């Protein structure tokens, strides 16, 4: 299987950014761990992080027909981006929406997501452990594309 992990704006600061909310694990730790978890299940995982909406749209489009599942933490774009939502629907790749923090326990503007109604699953508030859960779920339960 082939998995694409996408992290949106400010997640490059994971581990140092508001650690009381997001914890102390860095994004490169998350990416390396996710790749190792995938490899242990004979899957391939590529990671992408960008602070730019259009770059995320481009990366999703490039994955069309090439990956079996996407794990996306859209960061603040969760609450604003019709463009990223449309990209995911356009390539028709099933995806898991992930948030490190429990967005529902935070400000009201974080309670709405442009992704949740189209996600195969949503992981919220499990900290960086959520990434491991997402990778394992795709490995065990998503269908493999005919490539
Ligand atoms: C986040 C939650 C978002 O509301 C926030 O803008 C982020 C990170 C999370 O992982 O908890 O940047 O997606």
Automatic annotation (TrEMBL):
The record marks 17 as: Transition state stabilizer. The keyword Lyase applies. It holds the Pfam family DHquinase_II. Substrate binds at residues 73, 79, 86, 100-101, 110. GO terms for biological process: 3,4-dihydroxybenzoate biosynthetic process; quinate catabolic process. InterPro entries: DHquinase_II (IPR001874), DHquinase_II_CS (IPR018509), DHquinase_II_sf (IPR036441). It catalyses: 3-dehydroquinate = 3-dehydroshikimate + H2O. The active site is at 22 (proton acceptor), 99 (proton donor). Its EC number is 4.2.1.10. It is an enzyme of class 4 (lyase). Keywords: Lyase, Quinate metabolism. Pathway: Aromatic compound metabolism; 3,4-dihydroxybenzoate biosynthesis; 3,4-dihydroxybenzoate from 3-dehydroquinate: step 1/2. The keyword Lyase applies. It comes from the Eukaryota. Is involved in the catabolism of quinate. Allows the utilization of quinate as carbon source via the beta-ketoadipate pathway. NCBIfam families: aroQ, PRK05395.1-1, PRK05395.1-2, PRK05395.1-3, PRK05395.1-4. Homododecamer. Adopts a ring-like structure, composed of an arrangement of two hexameric rings stacked on top of one another. Belongs to the type-II 3-dehydroquinase family. This is Catabolic 3-dehydroquinase. It comes from Penicillium antarcticum. The gene is qutE.
């Amino acid at each position: 299987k082939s998995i694409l992990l996408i992290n949106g704006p400010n997640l490059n600061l994971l581990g140092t950014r508001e650690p009381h909310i997001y914890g102390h694990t860095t994004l490169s730790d998350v990416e390396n761990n996710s790749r190792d978890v995938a490899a242990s299940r004979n899957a391939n995982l590529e990671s992408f992080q960008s602070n730019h909406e259009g770059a995320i749209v481009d990366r999703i489009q490039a994955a069309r027909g090439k990956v079996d599942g996407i794990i996306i933490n859209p960061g603040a774009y969760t609450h604003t981006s019709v463009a990223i939502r449309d990209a995911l629907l356009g390539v028709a790749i099933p995806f898991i929406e992930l948030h490190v923090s429990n967005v529902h326990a935070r400000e009201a503007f974080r309670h709405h997501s442009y992704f949740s109604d189209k996600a195969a699953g949503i992981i919220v508030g499990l900290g960086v452990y959520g990434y491991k859960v997402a990778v394992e779920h795709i490995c065990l339960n998503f269908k493999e594309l005919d490539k």
